[in-house]
Amino acid sequence: MDNAGLSLDRMRTFVRVAERGNLSLVARELGVGQSTVTRHLNELEDAVGVSLLSRTTRRVTLTDEGSRYYTNCRQILRLVEQAAEEVRNARQAPAGTVRLSCTAALGVMHITRLIFEFQDKHPDIKVDLNLTDERIDLVREGVDIALRLGPLTDSSMKLHALGESHRLLVGAPNYLSVHGRPEHPTDLSRFETVVMSNVAGSDQIILFSDDGTSLMIPVGGKLRVDHGVAARQAFAAGRGIGPAHLWLVHDLLDDGQLEIVLGDYRPPPVPVSLLIVPERAAIARVRLLADFLVAKVSELPGIRPS
Questions:
Q1: DSSP H stretches of helix in the chain
Q2: Which of 171, 188, 203, 290 is most buried (most C-beta within 10 Å)?
């Protein structure tokens, strides 16, 4: 074995290629040429004496040996980073970058502002914020923390259940004055509904009454959007009615731009969760931001304990 090829830089390159599956993406991420990435991989494979990756024109995948080596490399790199963090934090405040992924509308409406507050307290910590409603692979995308709405299926992440986001039906006064108000949930099929095209089942509205009775009503409308802030604007512009998270529209309700429709009925609440990549959870800057968000998100309008 040639130990000269077993540098941490080569391990980091290998780990990111294993996670991203694409040499050019990793080259751009690391700010180097693709030839450098290829050289690092070749030198690492020469050092360990086995083939770690299987390369095609479109995709790079791990061999069986590469899969085992990848797991060990991640552990080694985590320990190296933690050791550096402990030494650095003993002498100065935590520093470095935390990569945060967040549901888009929640990020625009509230999380960006919370990050400003966090960075005022921790000016040496950089935050790389990614806003998306897609359920991305956190490890593959190099994300440390994710804030998500809805049920989760990835059991490999460290999970903090932050509560439930409560929703209600809303409409603008000008729309309701022209078209009237639904008196019962079954009336909703006669009204324009702003439909969220990126939410499964959004062509139906499920409502619960105070006594627990549930109703499912088919709805439709001329406007379909794939972003919560666009739905907020549509409601305020009188383009129709529909369900909305309270944190999305609370200010519009307070100043009279929106009104609650069918107040005796509510759409089911949506779980709110914070996910942390386990290997990153012990890093001081990641832990600081995660703890800050756990405390602050639970204070947002409509976020209540499960």
A1: 8-20, 23-30, 34-48, 64-91, 104-106, 112-121, 138-141, 173-179, 228-236, 246-254, 284-297
A2: 171
Q: Facing residues of 104 across strands?
A: none
Spell out the alpha helix ranges (H) of 92-149. Answer: 104-106, 112-121, 138-141
Single-letter amino acid code for the residue at 154: D
Q: What is the pLDDT of residues 95-143, one digit of tens each?
A: 889 999 999 999 999 999 999 999 999 999 999 999 998 888 888 788 9
Which of the pair, 158 or 206, is modelled with greater confidence?
206
| Three-point CA angle 6, 84, 147, nearest 5° | 100
Position 1 scores a pLDDT of 45
Q: Are 188 and 267 in contact (CB under 8 A)?
A: no
Tracing tokens 């991203």 back to the chain, one arrives at 20
pTM score of the predicted model: 0.75
Output the pLDDT for position 109: 96
* CB within 8 Å of 239: residues ≥ 6 apart: 175, 192, 194, 221, 222, 223
